[in-house]
Amino acid sequence: MLKLPGLIDPHVHLREPGATHKEDFDSGTSAALAGGFTTVLSMPNTKPPIFDKSTLALALDAAKRKAHCDYGQYIGAGPDNAETAASLSGTTAGLKMYLDSTFGELRLDDMSLWMPHFEKYPRNQPIVAHSESRTMAAAILFAAIYDRPIHIAHVSLKEEILIIKAAKERGIKVTCEVAPHHLFLHKGDLSGLTPGRGEVRPRLATKEDVDSLWANMDVIDCFATDHAPHTLAEKDSDNPPPGFPGLETALPLLLTAVSESRLTIPDLITKMHTNPRKIFNLPEQPETWVEVDENARYEIKASEQFTRCGWTPFEGWKVKGKVIRVVLRGVEAFKNGKNLVQPGFGRNVRG
Ligand code: DOR
Ligand code: ZN
């Protein structure tokens, strides 16, 4: 039995408020525990988006009543909320900036709208940027100009990881995360999925991109699932929203990579616990750990998942490594496929 520290996922979409038919704090944090995560940081592209005090209260009230594991809530950067976002930083996980097109309404195209956020947001928390390719380079330039930390979400391209490496070497305060689907799937793998199911932002990349992420493993600070549940009916519709669920498949996929010597357990602990805790300035969770059967072999099945979305792009994949038990703050929270704590057990990491 392998014992891991409580894993932290700094990038999940729990869809509350506004789209609880896809997921909510109850189902999403149950999925988190089943996947070995004891802390999740929830994104603000909800309906309405989280961008001020009253919308933040909507998310935090729901989380307080429903969460099974610990959580934090991001606030979204809008065209005129830099002051507000900064003033709420004590109760939020961080500031999320959508600088490229994706799901939801939060998007800042004009770079002059980025400036007040970089000026005002407290430097003890990172700004998290959804930014791809050249937009990512612009975001890193902003971190350099304002001399403040930036965290690049879901890096997927070779050019991105190489620029981040170069920026780090020059002392720019940039960190980054990679999602398992960008490590385990490339464009060519989409043939097994219907077109809508293959939709995700950033898109799946080329094999060369995927290989370069593996080759630059030491540049990757965190693994983050970007758990983005949409129902099967939505994914198979004429206008499929982008996003893959990931909370319950990340650890098994990564443990399988460990069993194939593509990754090490210390890598996994650094990128799923130590680094996210440091980067997001998260409190210790005392008496918290995850017990894993490293040798359990099984097939991934959506029908066995807690997420409400009802599917996974990894259906039928054979993996090695299973979460058996999760202890959170001294309490047995998950065991043998069962969630053992009540909604409301989870705490706000900025509580
Ligand atoms: O594929 C994605 N889905 N990428 C994002 O950036 C947003 C997410 C969502 O919220 O569905
Ligand atoms: Zn996301």
What are the SSEs and their pairings?
Elements: E1 2-5, E2 7-12, H1 25-34, E3 37-42, H2 53-66, E4 70-73, E5 75-76, H3 82-87, E6 95-98, H4 115-120, E7 127-130, H5 134-146, E8 150-152, H6 158-169, E9 174-178, H7 180-184, H8 207-215, E10 222-223, H9 232-235, H10 250-259, H11 265-279, E11 289-299, E12 318-328, E13 331-335, E14 338-339
Parallel strand pairs: 2-3, 3-4, 5-6, 6-7, 7-8, 8-9, 9-10
Antiparallel strand pairs: 1-11, 11-12, 12-13, 13-14
Bound molecules: (4S)-2,6-dioxohexahydropyrimidine-4-carboxylic acid and zinc ion (ZN).
What would you say this structure looks like, in words?
The protein has 351 residues and is α/β, with parallel strands linked by helices. It has a single domain (2-339), classed as Alpha-Beta Barrel (TIM Barrel), CATH 3.20.20. The chain is 30% helix and 20% strand. It has eleven helices and 14 strands. The chain has helices spanning 25-34, 53-66, 82-87, 115-120, 134-146, 158-169, 180-184, 207-215, 232-235, 250-259, 265-279; strands spanning 2-5, 7-12, 37-42, 70-73, 75-76, 95-98, 127-130, 150-152, 174-178, 222-223, 289-299, 318-328, 331-335, 338-339. The chain has a six-stranded parallel β-sheet with strand order 5-6-7-8-9-10. It has a five-stranded antiparallel β-sheet with strand order 1-11-12-13-14, with helices on one face. The protein has a three-stranded parallel β-sheet with strand order 2-3-4. Strand 7 (127-130), helix 5 and strand 8 form a beta-alpha-beta unit. The longest helix is centred in the C-terminal third of the chain and has 15 residues, at 265-279. Bound molecules: (4S)-2,6-dioxohexahydropyrimidine-4-carboxylic acid and zinc ion (ZN). (4S)-2,6-dioxohexahydropyrimidine-4-carboxylic acid (DOR) is lined by residues 13, 45, 102-104, 130, 200-201, 228, 241-243. The site of zinc ion (ZN) has 5 residues, from loops.
